[in-house]
Description:
Elements: E1 4-7, H1 13-24, E2 28-33, E3 44-47, H2 56-60, E4 65-68, H3 78-96, E5 100-106, H4 116-129, E6 135-140, E7 143-144, H5 149-160, E8 164-166, E9 173-174, E10 177-178, H6 179-188, E11 199-201, E12 208-209, H7 210-220, E13 227-229, H8 235-245, H9 250-259, H10 271-274, H11 282-295
Parallel strand pairs: 1-2, 1-4, 2-3, 4-5, 5-6, 6-11, 7-10, 8-13
Antiparallel strand pairs: 9-12
Amino acid sequence: MAKTVLVTGASGFIGSHLSAALVEAGYDVHAMTRHPDRYDGAGRAVAGDVSDPGSLAAALTGVQAAYYLVHSLGSDDFEEKDAAAATNFSHAASQAGVERIVYLGGLGSDDEDLSPHLRSRRKVEELLRAGEVPVTVLRAAVVVGHGGISWEITRQLIDHLPLMVTPRWVKTRTQPIALPDVVRYLVGVLEPTEARGQVYEIGGPDVLRYLDMLERAAAVQGRKFPNITVPLLTPRLSSAWLALVTDVDLATARNLVDSMTTEVVVRDRSIEQVVPGPTIGYEDSVRLALADRAGGGGGAGSAPAATPATDPAPAATGAPAPDGR
């Protein structure tokens, strides 16, 4: 009998592709969403909302493992919302007898002054792990894939601007990871007993500044990306500017930009002992994202990509999110 797995955020950027990959791997996938009548992705839609504790018992009934992919980047009080949601889910999963939770969080050293976005990701880890269910955490930076917020910002800046006035944060180092690799890692940690309760950092092979990401993504498309760095362009001003020249809303732009001042790179590669295999380079991940967009979706699994959302229905994200963001 196939293991029953619940995916929160199943209609989001990463959740949609993860659900498709889990179904392909033979799991019985329950896709949690606030609007099951509208869901047309992989798995069986079940009603649930992490902000409504009363809705979670039914969604978690009969579930052996659960993926937690929910974040609220698009609101000013996202830290409070994320904390409450994680507490609700941890308690409900404990009550339902779930055997394991897998959570996609954000990279960033614990001894650094983390941005509110990354601080919230770390707090969600803490709250999920406060329950009785073992939690496996994957921490990622920018996830490159069609529909992810961080990638969409990169793509739209290149498409819309002949010249970019860049703030200081474009020189911050990060370690982007391709969407197919994120999905591979999420699926790969589900079964191994040694992954229970562990925290893993995941990233692609390239450590790049945000400026390098923009320039390389432009080069893949046969374009140049001239820029002028203006040190006095504050995160608050640059987030307002991002909201003006891209589709991202102001609250999400502000929360993402705040995080872009923090270096997020992989320092622990123990994930390779659990889920071995090479990762996709940045330029190739850009090509995959562009091909998925040209083809109308697809990519890492057959489910349509979507902008990260807070719906247990991102990235969220996503975030970045977060896609990892």
